[in-house]
Amino acid sequence: MSARAEEWQGPALDHVIRKLARFAPLSRDEINGLRSLPVIPREYARGEVIVPQGSIQSESAVVISGITCRTKHLSEGTRQIVSLQVPGDFVDLHSFVLKPMDHAVEAASKVLIGRISHPAIEDMLERHPRLCRSLMWDMAVDAAMTREWLAITGRRTAYQRLAHLFCELYFRLEWVGRVRDQGYDFALTQEMLADASGLTPVHVNRSIQALRADGLIVTERQRLMIPDIGALVAAANFDAAYLHLLK
Amino acid sequence: MSARAEEWQGPALDHVIRKLARFAPLSRDEINGLRSLPVIPREYARGEVIVPQGSIQSESAVVISGITCRTKHLSEGTRQIVSLQVPGDFVDLHSFVLKPMDHAVEAASKVLIGRISHPAIEDMLERHPRLCRSLMWDMAVDAAMTREWLAITGRRTAYQRLAHLFCELYFRLEWVGRVRDQGYDFALTQEMLADASGLTPVHVNRSIQALRADGLIVTERQRLMIPDIGALVAAANFDAAYLHLLK
DNA sequence: CGTCATATTGACTTTAGTCAATAGAAGTGG
DNA sequence: CCACTTCTATTGACTAAAGTCAATATGACG
What we know:
2 copies of one chain form a homodimer.
Chain A: H1 5-8, H2 14-20, H3 28-35, E1 40-44, E2 49-51, E3 59-65, E4 68-73, E5 79-85, E6 104-107, E7 111-117, H4 118-127, H5 131-155, H6 158-175, E8 183-185, H7 190-197, H8 201-213, E9 218-220, E10 223-225, H9 229-236
Antiparallel strand pairs in A: 1-7, 2-6, 3-7, 4-5, 4-6, 8-10, 9-10
Helix pairs in contact in A: 6-8, 6-9, 7-8
The structure holds a DNA duplex.
């Protein structure tokens, strides 16, 4: 990354701005306020820790490319991935108000993130108080996704949980233009999928084989193909409403 | 309920105000702003729906006494309780920005709630813009609890999940003065516990028997006694940090 | 006293986990 | 490009946790 920070001010937040506009129309002033946030880019390799659990952050980060995950490390040594972030998502907007971190954030693929300091956010909110409502909305959508994951984890089979996860990623990535030829880049290992779905890697492997056998997914290298998203949606009983993607 | 709405303006929000002060000190003005919110009280019997799934709310509610739960009804006919609210908690602060509701809210015991209209909140935020940060914090703590539940549901045994739930309620209720004689009022049926922990009622029953046999809990009528909270905390591997109760 | 909701029990099934080995793929240094 | 290490995926045999079904208690309540 040789780009200077200023170069990132515009494009880095484009997806964020487009997303926040789903909640309420943004004025030109507000858009400029968002655009002028200083964004510091940084790259991470898969598996690298972006935000450590228990840390006190003085900046929040946005995914520019790649996928990150929030993970909770439990005392038993096990861990649970509680959410995934795609381009345009804040990985830890809540760290603006909530400290210390109750979870870590890690790179689930090679990832480029943009860091925005809390004072800069504070500043922007002083100038544009209504944007606080937009950030609240972003946090609320985020929370809705966690609720969905909890319901799925508590009440569905391994097969359905994985189908659900693949569906969710499909629609979220599609919204930011990351779906091509009915598929998307997918660097998560089966072990990470296990941590995301509350299963063991072995059982994930077997469930994925079942999904493949049913023709619902095709995996190749670091890509996931979904020949018939409608069929996968049906298998997962997936309802995209909680993603609040419309508008 | 013969009380007029005005009578509730003061005391109904006392716990809320004390809680928000955990995030940042509130000015006298801000406290007055919160206190002058019109709060409309309403009582519900156990099992009654307070907020229907899919509805568009024009007010948010606060628990004044009793316990409520957020439930997600899945297409299979099953359901998952994704969180519990105790006195001083907003049951749906997020409905201020997020519509329609991705879950329902139901009374988990006989409950008294206070309803606050969104325009009134909007109004208060115009006057006291910094309070928006406090509400964000409240939502963030709420989200942290859901993350914890997800991790517990995904990675722990039935026995631990229930122990964890009883611990969480203990500390949350203690903070609002609802713990007496090492126990608290507890009206949840085993079926509700099953929905909260992602288990079946039969398995909840057996796990509770195990907790009783180990001397960790004593159940009597509508009360739960915890003779040795330290022992229960140890059994649950419970770490209260995510509740952000300090200060 | 009878009814309905809740709790409890027993017998059996299923899903998912465990352990351990093997196969494939990707990455590294020479 | 090869040899080697290291991850990651896959398989098999077995175990354990949790679910299912169905009956039976228990308890609150009108």
